Amino acid sequence: MDHLLEVKDLEVKFALRMGDLTAINGVSFTLDRSERLGLVGESGAGKSVTGFSIINLISKPGYISGGSVIFEGRDLTRLTNEGMRHIRGNLISMIFQDPMMTLNPVLTIGTQMVETLQAHMDISRKEAEDISLEKLRKVHIPSPEKRLQQYPHEFSGGMRQRIVVAIALLTDPALVIADEPTTALDVTIQAEIMELLLELCESEGTGLILITHDLAVVSQVTQKIAVMYAGKIVEAGQTEDIIDNPRHPYTQGLIKAIPDGRNPGARLNQIPGTMPSLIDIPPGCSFHPRCMIRGDICRHESPALKNIHGYRSMAACHMLDTAEKQAGANVTK
Amino acid sequence: MKQWKRFKNSYFLHSFKRDRVAIVSFVVLLTLILLSILAPVIAPHNPYDTTTIDIMNAEMPPSWMEDGNPDFVLGTDIQGRDLLSTMLYGLRLSVMIGCGAVFLQAIIGIFIGMISGYAGGKVDAFLMRIADVQLSFSTLMVAIMISAIFQVAFGVGRYEQLAVPLLVLIIGLAEWPQYARTVRASVLGEKNKEYVEAARVIGLSSKRIRWRHILPNTMSPVLVISTIQVANAVMSEAALSFLGLGMPVTKPSLGSLINSGFEYIFSGSWWITLFPGILLVVFVLVINLLGDWLRDVLNPKLYKG
Amino acid sequence: MKNKLIDIRNLVKHFDISGGLLEQMALRNGRIIRERTVVRAVNDVSLFIHPGETLSVVGESGCGKSTLARALLGLYPPDGGEIYYRDNRIDGLTQQQMLPYRAKMQMIFQDPYASLNPRMTVQQTLEEPIVFHNPSISGSEVKGRVAEIMKQVGVDPKWGDRYPHEFSEGQRQRISIARALMVDPEFVVADEPVSALDVSVQAQILNLLMDAQEQRGLTYMFITHDLSVVRHISSRVAVMYLGRVCELAPTANLFESPGHPYTRALLSAIPDLYDHRHKYIKLKGEVPTPIDLPPGCVFHGRCPHADGRCSREIPSLNHQGSEIYVACHAIEEGRLK
User: Residue C144: what pLDDT?
Assistant: First the structure.
């Protein structure tokens, strides 16, 4: 079966005065229909840029300099603006961290939903309102008829994000890209929104790309995870494999750095240093200056994302054998 | 040395070098200011020295015209003074009054704005209403009132001696609310930032927090309005002088020079008004252009989206 | 009973946000009345902190945890209640009277960009507190101390003449911690110190805070919404909801057997890395605004166990054995186990 989305060797550059900076360097992944993928990484990893480049919405000075984004058989990087408009907000929709990025503060929720629908479908206002009401009910907004007449500022933060979810699902898209949708929200509301998103994607058969820094959130929602570091995918695989059995030293470090409540008070496993900025991405493996098991080859040669012998996941690391021993040593300890 | 290196690599210098308008404006402004400062050295004549002025030379056209005299490049005014020299001395007076007035505005405005923004509540409301009242009088109205009172009280003779400090005072007093409002607005933004709370947790006095921690962080907008205010002050001075309320004809500023030539513009002596007029416009224009550039540099988020 | 380093009794902090007199005027039933809008941020909070421990205050946005911290440090004058530091009352002191306590109590802030003065070099930022509190100290001594503390927090002392914007987020937070440590405090309030940081950097900062506590015997009050961080570093936890403490318990007890219905819901909402698809307790409705507090228990409108008494009577923090305190009628009456 064909994939719903296939991103192949995607490369995004930023044209700056000191020259072009590579923000995304050869990112490839696939997503099947109704599949959910988590794009995980720390700030500066390029996960949001990846999300934006799928719908060709990178703001200047950024541009897609290579690779392809095949969605339902069409290469989105080659579409005209007009063609892209048909895709964006219709077949692929996006949820942002700040609901006010999506909602216009001076229009009622109803107007915004109806306009979105009418932009993509040839339907009457009444029909559009009916669909809007149905979607608001689906995201558990109480008394949706009344709510349709209200402005975004009349809702609480959690409600707003639920409305954004409703708007994202209005046109029954095949794919939703959610960029840190719950980062600004409290835990109880985050749990609510995530459950809602999961429930709706499952019932409607919608594909989901969840972009977040929070591995725990991703582990609740997605079937696959791709871990990004400095513009590349360093490890990808099934969620439970990545969480329970990370192979790349960065993923291992990241998971161990999360306080999980098993050893209160103990020193956390920290990864030294910080993510390199785009200006000075180190040569070879971009993680090598922070890596505990780096070898000589890591300084010169950039590792490719490849299958790991004996595992289902893929990782981009020269020292996988050492990483395996490392992981084993930690288990016995 | 380190400061210089930091400056050399700064965004400030980088964006200056890329902006041609800014470079040209800066060069023109620098030239004009140098000319005005060095006026006593480089001006061909001394317009204040009555012994060198000959009324027979009055209303001579610029040297390239038919009746022109190579001694007086831009011609002479109605009293026979060399126009170029008088303009340079006039620019010097205008710059002095402009900068002096802005200095006074800044001192009053920053002080009141800081107190108002930091204290908040009733103090803030009171000081800002005073600023509103002050702003609702136009600069010219205040100037006309004060100078009229002064001339009546001290006589026109004293007035001529004290015209420069008086103009500085008038324009300074009339426009301080601009500074007060700007400073207050940025103090309101800064005072709730965590670094101010950190300073309070250390136990620093509110005076020290205000002047040592908050003030340096409110300086960018102050710098921006300062350029605009210098231009405004020069314009105000010119307007007052044009109305006969500013610099006396014996010590003309650009404004009074324009005024003195204005009566003769239709009798053919257009140069007396035109050349000082052009100088004034160019001077104010380059300051405003530099101010715009400065605003863009210091508030990149605000203006470049 | 262990001794108390900090003792907060019935602390109240309200903010009047009604603005000027004109904005307060409102027309009701044909009559002009004056209306005040008051945010009841902290209501009747009592807490104590033992020396050497880490007390975490958790709650969701708007629950008053940051206000509590700032009132404790005297940044906001409290509207009621008392605060004691080693049995000395410290609320309502003048700036001068407060000075000796300033050197003992310090604070670390959330935003590593806003908490350092952008126009001061790191050296200037770090020198200021120590010179202020020890005016007679010599220049070389100050320099030595700054270098020592910078080394301790993991920032190279030779970067002292750089400005904050030249550092990464994690390094800025280290500098912020260094500033708090400069005066050699006993007690540090950390207001969401790792919330703005990436996971790998967060671990570095948490380790640094734990090391500093061990080396210097610091006492922490840790304000955060991140429950996994709380579980890792604190000895006791106070859970706040709408300006009130609803549960105060040792960390292990709280996470293993949460008492208050709100605590139960909050804990169930933490996504667990290893437990996919676990069930969380869904709460009805939304958090009410602190301007218009519900009568009785502030949580009763969303609580699955609320009855008539809960909507009338404010529950007090009751001792439930071994340092566990819960403010809940249902637990007190034994309706909820």
Answer: 94
Round to whole Å and give the CA distance between C178 and C156: 12
Q: Do C161 and B216 touch (CB under 8 A)?
A: no
Contact (CB, 8 A) for B237 and B167: yes
- Nearest CA distance, C250 vs chain B (angstrom): 28
Enter the DSSP assignment of A290. Answer: G
DSSP at A40? E
The 10 Å Cβ neighbour count of residue C248 is 26
pTM of the model: 0.86
The total number of structural domains in chain C stands at 2
Classify residue C284: in a domain, yes or no. Answer: yes
In chain A, CATH 3.40.50.300 sits at 1-91+176-260+269-274
* Mean pLDDT, chain B, whole residue set: 84
pLDDT of residue A286: 92
Give the whole-angstrom CA distance, residue C71 versus residue B146.
Answer: 51
Could you give phi then psi for residue B6, rounded to 5 degrees?
-60, -40
> Looking at the domain that runs over B99-305, which CATH code has it been given?
1.10.3720.10
| pLDDT at A333 (0 to 100) | 35
- CB within 8 A of B38, min separation 6: which ones? none
User: DSSP assignment, residue A99?
Assistant: G
Q: Which of residues 151-190 of C touch A (CB under 8 A)?
A: 168-171
A276 secondary structure, DSSP code: P
Last residue of a domain, one of C203, C234, C265: C234
- For residue C40, give the H/E element and its range: strand C38-49
> In C, which residues are within 8 Å of B197 by CB distance?
70, 75, 107, 109, 115
Q: What is the distance between the alpha carbons of residues B84 and B82, in angstroms, rounded to a whole number?
A: 6
The superfamily in CATH containing domain A1-91+176-260+269-274 is: P-loop containing nucleotide triphosphate hydrolases (3.40.50.300)
